[in-house]
Write a structure and sequence with these properties.
Length: about 475
């Protein structure tokens, strides 16, 4: 450090020149400036159009499909209540909220490094020598400021800002996944309840048929084989119920945990026989490019790419000289009143320069590492986009084909229902065997059970498609979570 004369005009001139030089060099921010890469995406879903490059910066949020609160279209009050409960109590959301607070604090911490630092010092002591007592008081301030000549610190602040964006998108992704999991498990629970009810109705009907054949057997109008077949089919149908009960309980337990409660907490809430949620309106899928705006995992991957692009500049800046301004002012006296006297005050100010000369290639290697990391996140971003496109295409096809299957199963169930009624009428008239009745009832039960499973698959497919498109809440500000501590 070179001390400067506080009364010298040369000193003042040098200080002005140094400030001017600092302002000039501040514009010399090294490293690549981030720009969102253009990506080739199809022009339409499930189409034969050639892919074309789309830049996220060219997209407008207003053109994306309206997918906010898509579950309300299912018109199920219990499902709505479960999602609201999870919004306030889910622990994964609480963790994601904490990560946002951490990212905000990191941003403030990194940003503070751009400012000068100022520390105060003070001391007081008394000494005795040769019978006399003396006092000494000292006070002072130390200041320092590392000039960000090549933008290394600014790049670090830029990276911290992108990291905050990542945390916010991760929160949206957590909420999207949570809503999808709640809706899927709720639909499954309703489906298992409906299948349990069907199995019980069918088993009850078969028990009535068993009683009828027993009466007829006792009257000598049928064989013991018919009675045994009726009893066997009734027992076989009843055997399905415990398996369905297990699956139903597992779905309810998952819902309870997703809402931040013990596994059995929601048992009473879902034990009613409400219908399986049925989507009526089609899902507004928009165009493939919309997922660059609506999918939080895609947005998070893009922000990570931006973050690691900024870190290249930080690594690059470390290869250049760094200049710090340091200064101190101090005063001392035998009494506190003496501290303010001009004759007791001294100060020191001056720059210090650090120039990397030889470091065994470490700084150059650090830049290469940063570039390689950026390239990894660019590949991950492109991969995430492709996966998102795949998710949507698969969901569109699955939902469309399941609707076709449901229509066929509805026709089959109606046909088997008529066949069962006809078989019973013919049997009672003595025109057909009892095995025809059992076969018709077995086919009807299988068709109605398959129809219920298809209804569940349609609702689940609706959930999957909305999830694949990035549907959820409008933004981070709407995801309030009382389970997370407040700032």
């Amino acid at each position: 450090m070179t001390p400067l004369n506080r009364n010298g005009k040369t000193t003042a001139t040098r200080r002005v020149a140094l400030v001017a030089l600092t302002g000039l060099l501040a514009a010399c921010t090294v490293g690549p400036d981030y720009s969102i890469p253009a990506l080739p995406v199809p022009a339409s879903w499930s189409g034969k159009d050639n892919a074309h490059a789309v830049a996220v910066a060219d997209l407008k949020a207003s053109t994306a499909p309206a997918l906010s609160r898509w579950w309300l279209a299912l018109d199920d009050a219990t499902l709505n209540r479960l999602i609201e409960m999870a919004r306030g109590q889910n622990l994964d959301l609480a963790a994601a909220q904490a990560k946002i607070r951490e990212a905000r604090a990191t941003y403030r911490q990194v940003g503070g490094a751009l400012s000068p630092t100022l520390d105060g010092t003070g001391a007081a002591n008394r000494s005795r020598s040769n019978g006399s007592v003396s006092s000494n008081f000292q006070a002072g301030f130390d200041a320092s400021w590392e000039l960000d000549l090549f933008g290394g610190k600014q790049r670090r602040v830029e990276a911290a800002a992108y990291s905050l964006d990542v945390a916010q998108e991760d929160l949206r992704d957590t909420m999207l996944t949570l809503i999808g999991d709640i809706a899927s498990n709720y639909v499954s629970a309703r489906g298992f309840r409906a299948r349990i009810a069907l199995a019980r109705r069918t088993a009850g009907s078969l028990r009535e048929t068993e009683d009828l054949t027993r009466t007829m057997f006792q009257a000598g109008s049928t064989s013991g084989a018919d009675m045994a077949n009726a009893a066997g089919q009734a027992s076989s149908t009843e055997a399905n119920i415990p398996t369905l009960e297990v699956s139903y309980a597992q779905a309810v337990h998952r819902l309870s945990v997703l809402t931040g409660q013990p596994p059995a907490a929601l048992t009473g809430m879902i034990e009613n026989d409400a219908p399986i949620p049925t989507p009526v309106k089609p899902v507004p899928a928009g165009v493939p490019a919309d997922i660059l705006l609506t999918r939080p995992d895609v947005r998070s991957a893009e922000r990570q790419l931006a973050q690691y692009t900024a870190l290249i500049g930080e690594a690059e800046a470390a290869r250049y000289p760094s200049i710090s301004l340091t200064g101190s002012i101090s005063t001392s006296g035998s009494s506190i009143g003496d501290l303010a006297k001009g004759s007791s005050i001294g100060w020191l100010i001056g720059p210090s320069v650090s120039v990397p000369i030889f470091n065994g290639g470490q700084l150059a290697a650090a830049v290469d590492i940063a570039v390689a990391q950026r390239d990894q996140f660019e590949a991950a971003f492109r991969s995430t986009v492709l996966t998102a496109l795949e998710d949507v295409e698969n969901a569109i096809v699955a939902l469309a084909q399941e609707r076709i299957r449901y229509r066929s199963l509805t026709e089959a169930a109606n046909a088997y229902r008529d066949a069962t009624q006809l078989a019973r009428t013919l049997y009672q008239a003595g025109s057909s065997s009892f095995l025809d009745v059992l076969d018709a009832e077995r086919s009807l039960y299988s068709a109605e059970d398959s129809l219920l499973q298809s209804q569940v698959a349609i609702a689940a497919g609706y959930v999957t498609l909305n999830k694949a498109l990035g549907g959820g809440w409008d933004g981070v500000d709407e995801i309030e979570n009382p389970a997370a501590p407040r700032d």
